[in-house]
Amino acid sequence: MWPEDLQVIYRRLSRKTDPSNENGTPPFIYQELSARVEYNSSDYARYATVTDPRFYKKIVNTLKKVNQANLKELKKYVTQAPTDDVIVYVDRKYVTQAPTDDVIVYVDSHETLRGIDVNDPQNDMVNYQERRAYVLANIILLAQPHGIPRVMSSYEIDRKTEPFVPPGVLGPPSDHAFNTLPVLKKADYGCYNGWICEHRWPEIRAMVQFRNAVGNAPVTAWWDDDVDAVAFARHGKGFVVINNGRSTLNVLLNTTLPQGYYCDVITGEVTGQYHSACAGRMIKVRSDNYAQFTVNSDSEVPAVAMHIDARVFPDA
User: Fold this and answer.
1) What is the rounded average pLDDT of the residues 67-78?
2) Among 114, 124, 120, 108, which Cα is nearest to 165's?
3) Domain ranges in the chain with CATH number 2.60.40.1180
4) Which of 185, 196, 186 is CA-nearest to residue 158?
5) Phi and psi for 283 in degrees, rounded to 5?
6) What are phi and psi of 290, to 5 degrees?
7) Which reactions appear under catalytic activity for this entry (predicted)?
8) Is 285:238 a contact under the CB 8 Å cutoff?
9) Which CATH class is domain 216-312?
């Protein structure tokens, strides 16, 4: 759709989205940019937020080690403040750029889930069917500081890697009369009845809390093993470690966090009336802000994440 036509539509939208605000609050609009169609993305970005089709591909390629890629390559994406370089792919080539102040970044979408708008469905995408890689990708998405992260919530899809599967095969869970089935929640916050509810997965839910806790804290204390284990801090607010390698990681790292005990929110949340315990692993941060980490690459989620709101006080 031509950006000028969208501008006309946007101008006609009601600003009264918040009844408590007499002056009106403009609706939040974002535009999904295709990774396979050539256009000037800045033409759209001047009217509303745009998606960044670069980001998920880079994360997924490194996690899947496409063309010998590794996590170390994410350093510039995580540590460097964006300038004006939302890069749009067209047939694997960079073709244009757009402002990045408020871009939408994501791991998957309703289209990548179906193999649509993806150059290589086998290597350029990940979804709930590859739980380990999917959770790690969302940890990276929500730990890094750039853009507005979008978390997926989907339903079961029976598809191969071939794109453009007919929509009738990929519709939502329904009964014999084609009525959409209700979303039913399990005790562990998961879903059934055909629904996946990735946003309720414990690790992803915990990382949303991480994102809220760290706010706008800058990325500092980047560390990597020169291959597939990385760590970085959101200065003074949070710290993550990810091991996508082949061996157990044992390392002493500067977390930048105040001295004390913290829950690894990947393995369990804070418990106790006065934040006195962890449902999962507890990490001790020394007076010099360093902590010892052991992350087994064979574990279900080979990562650690802790933040200032997950601090615990065992003696409370």
Assistant:
1) 91
2) 114
3) 216-312
4) 196
5) -115, 135
6) -90, 155
7) Endohydrolysis of (1->4)-alpha-D-glucosidic linkages in polysaccharides containing three or more (1->4)-alpha-linked D-glucose units
8) no
9) mainly beta
Place of tokens 């500067």: 254
Phi, psi for 127 (deg, rounded to 5): -145, -170
Q: How high is the pLDDT of residue 152?
A: 94
* Pair of tokens at residue 31: 């535009």
Find tokens 């869970």 and name the residue: 173
The per-residue pLDDT for range 84-139, each reduced to its tens digit, is 444 333 333 333 344 445 789 999 998 888 777 787 878 888 999 999 999 999 99
Q: How far apart are the first and last CA of the chain?
A: 59
CATH code: domain 3-200 is: 3.20.20.80
pLDDT single digits (tens) 14-54:
766 666 766 767 788 899 887 777 777 788 888 888 988 87
Rounded to whole angstroms, the maximal C-alpha distance in the chain is 63
Kindly report the length of the chain. 316
**DSSP per-residue letters across the chain:** --HHHHHHHHHHS-SB--TT-TT-BPPP-EEPPPSSS---HHHHHTTSEEB-HHHHHHHHHHHTTGGG--GGGGHHHHHSPP-S--PEEETTEEEE----TT-EEES--TTGGGTTT-S-TTTS---TTSHHHHHHHHHHHHHS-SSEEE----B-----S-S---GGGSPPPB-TT-PBPPPEE-TTS-EETTB--GGGSHHHHHHHHHHHHHTTPPEEEEEE-SSSEEEEEETTTEEEEEE-SSS-EEEEEE--PPSEEEE-TTT--EETTTT-EESS-EEEE-TTSEEEEEE-TTSSS-EEEEEGGGEE-TT-
- Of the candidates 39, 38, 78, 50, the one whose C-alpha atom is nearest the C-alpha of residue 62 is 78
Residues of the chain with CATH 3.20.20.80: 3-200
pTM of the model: 0.88
| Cα–chain center distance at 312 | 26
Chain-centroid distance, C-alpha 30: 17
The CA distance from 262 to 316, in Å, is 14
Cβ atoms of residues 291 and 253 within 8 Å: yes
